[in-house]
Amino acid sequence: METEIFFDTTDTPAGTLYLVFEAQALTALMFTPVNKTGQNHTSVSEHAIREIDAYFAGKLETFSILIRFLSGTAFQKAVWNASASVPYGETQSYKWLAEKLGRHPASSRAIGQALKMNPIPIIVPCHRIVRSDHGLGGYSGGLARKEFLLQLESQKYRQYNHPVL
After folding, report:
1. Which residue from 17, 18, 98, 121 could staple onto 30, CB 3.0 to 4.6 Å apart?
2. What is the CATH number of the domain that holds 145?
3. Which of 126, 130, 136, 150 is flagged as catalytic?
4. Is residue 126 among the annotated active site residues?
């Protein structure tokens, strides 16, 4: 029996988000359009969009959306899950995340590459991981979007000169 995959979109202050669902779970959130055959608006996608809207309105800090990683290595999934432990409004370093996973601090670059592949950014908040010197590091959605999300979550995070969306 084949599981139904459906799509939806939502406009946010960080740009249009393209959502992919399988059954009752969000499996991808992208910043660029999805190559799809159709769009289904369902109660599952409506719930996800309500939570995303509440997040951008500053009214939601923790998502309850059911997520499922359909791809990724065991290492990548461990990195994604560990990044979710960083609380709203806070940041941690790539080095911290490496150490949290029991890896050598020098594996920070591998941590960054795993975060780059996070299929569900924002919900799995990889934007909260920054360089040890508090520089932004990288972000699959672009540095301006990463800074925007960090500023949304914490008014203290204003030391960077990247433009906000």
Report:
1. 18
2. 1.10.10.10
3. 126
4. yes
